[in-house]
Amino acid sequence: MQNGTLLAAVDLGSNSFRLEIGRYAHGHIQRVEYLKETVRQGNGLDREHNLSHEAMQRGWDCLARFAERLADFPRAQVRAVATQTLREARNREEFLQRGSEVLGHHIDVVSGLEEARLIYQGVARLLPQSNERRLVVDIGGRSTELILGEQFTPHAVASFRVGSVAWSSRYFAEGLFTSQSFAAAEIAAKAVLDEALGTYRRDAWEVAYGSSGTVGAVGDILAAAGQPEGVISRASLDWLRERLLRAQSADKIRLEGLKEDRRAVIGGGLSVLRAVFDLLDIHEMRVAQGALRQGALYDLLDREQPETDLRTTTVQGLVQSFAADSIHAERVARIACALFGQVSPAQAGTALRKLNWAAQLHEIGCRISHSDYHRHGAYILENTDVAGFAQHELHRLGSLVLGHRGKVRKIETDLNDPTFAMQLMCLRLAVALCHARRDPDMEGLVLSLRGRQFQLVTRAGWATAYPQSAHLLREEMLAWQRTPWDLQTDLP
């Protein structure tokens, strides 16, 4: 990454959408611009967990304004991340498809654990270097993330479905504040967060930090009231609760430091924060400057190089967890990537890396059952929750694993993407060539592509020397019939 390069992160939260633009310089990212709009998309979920058209339109309108600022940004320099509301929304694909088109960049829906990891990265990057054991708490609109870590490494991450927007609509629906509503909200939040007690116990951390959203809003109110800046105590939370009870409703709150976009959700956010303090025995919390969007920016740096890409480590962990044959997986990956380099040398970056990961993972389903192991492997990837990957990336890996054997037509929809088709062709050919679980003879073997027709050619005598391999390659030619792609072989 060259010094001076601009990077951008878009955070599609349940309450607000945010755009952070930073300039890279000597390993650090300095803020250039920050935009925030209150979208309250989390309020647009109905009982069937479908987003209303109005909520989607508010989001699209905001993304259109962000898109104007990002018009000249290359795709590799922008990361757009969606969180709990779009994790829950059953009709999220409708929003994501149009939203990505409007923004001009793909929107990643990340899991709760991946959101927590990115939050920790954002917080840690903006804190002074220290060996302290940290607890990081982020109370968003519809989820709360808890993280334990040291320096830049998170040791435990968790996400819970409790947040300021959800709790405000559920327990303070009319914007009214009563002792009973606060008590009910705090009890309910503790019930959701209760399973955190075993991991996030008081002796597991030394300093507690609060990130973004509710914690930032509460910190602003307390600082404006003359209390220590950047610090939240139990006594200060009691004071704020009493002020809200005295006001009786959100409309009547008169507090310096309370921004208008936080007025409607301050009751729910405060009740969750008080529950976290009580449950985890927190006496004091420091307001952190970093958040999810900064974590996404630094994640762009890590993804740029294979050696720093966390996803590579995650793939290795999955191979080990499911006891796949790592030597054979590396063999298949090496051959598949060599073929991809022949057919698409211009795409030797991320596309090649993803093909390598799919090849490494193509046999992880064998741990469950050798029968239909490709289907088991695809299921694992579609339903796993691992660090570094967005949901659509895991879906793409799952599709490659599912399609690496058997009929190609079962994933015909994915074949509309030329890059995917090339990846799948190279993976299937590599699996066939490595059928004997030893290095195949690749001398004189050339794969090319013209239009939508692949051509595989070998040297004279190759088919005679390797009759089983030649048979599998001819079978592969038949497998691609009646798809949008064609494979022709010349095996003298």
Distance between the termini: 47 Å
> Average pLDDT value?
94
What spatial order of strands do you see in the largest sheet?
Answer: 8-7-6-9-11-10
Look up the CATH topology of the largest domain: Hypothetical protein af1432
Count every helix, treating DSSP H or I runs of 4 or more residues as helices: 19
Instruction: Count the E strands.
Output: 14
Q: What sort of overall outline do the alpha carbons produce when their principal axes are compared? A: elongated
User: How many domains comprise the coordinates?
Assistant: 3
| Low-confidence runs of at least 5 consecutive residues | none
Structural class: alpha/beta
**What integer value in Å does the Rg equal?**
26 Å
CATH-defined superfamily of the largest domain: Hypothetical protein af1432
Relative helix content: 40-55%
Beta-strand residue percentage: 15-25%
Q: What's the CATH architecture name of the largest domain?
A: Orthogonal Bundle
Major sheet: size, sense and barrel closure? 6 strands, mixed
